[in-house]
Amino acid sequence: MDASQASEAPDMTMFLASSIHDMKNSLSVLTGFMEDSLSDAALREQPIYKKMAPMFYEVKRLNDNLLELLTIYKVDRKFYPFDLAEHAVDDLMAEIEHQSGTLLNTQNVQLELDVQEGLYWYFDRDLVMGVISHALNNASRYTRGHLRLAAAEVDGFLELRVEDNGGGYPKAMIEEGIAVNRGVSFNTGSTGLGLYFSAMVAKMHKNQGRVGEIVLENGGKLGGGCFILRLP
Amino acid sequence: MVFTTDSHNAFAERRFLIVDDFQGMRSMLREMLKSCGAKDIDAASNGNEAIGMLEKNKYDIVLCDYTLGAGKNGQQVLEEAKFRNLVGLATGWVVISAEKTQDMVLGAAEYTPDDYIVKPVNEATVRARLLKVMARKETMQDIERALKSNDYKRAIALCDEQLAARSPYTSDLLRMKTNLLMKSGQNDKAQAVFEQILAQRDIPWAKSGLAKIHLLNKDFETARRLLSEVVESNRTYLEGYDLLAKTLEEAGELDEAQHVLARSAELSPNSMMRQRSLGEIAQKRGDLDVAEKSFRKTISLGEFSVFKTPGAHLGLAKVCAEKNNTSEAIRVLGEVHKHFDDPEAALHAKVIEGAVHSKSGNLAEARKLAGEVAAMVKESAARLPAHITLEAADLIMGTGNKDAAADLLKIVVQNNHENKQLIEDVKKVFVKGNMEEVGNDLVESSLQEVVQTNNKGVALAKEGKLDEAVTLMRNAKSMMPNNKRILLNLAYAMILAMKKSGRDNSMEREARECLERVHKLDPGEKLYGEYRAMLEALASS
Question: Does residue B403 belong to the interface with chain A, where contact is any CB pair within 8 Å?
Answer without folding.
Answer: no
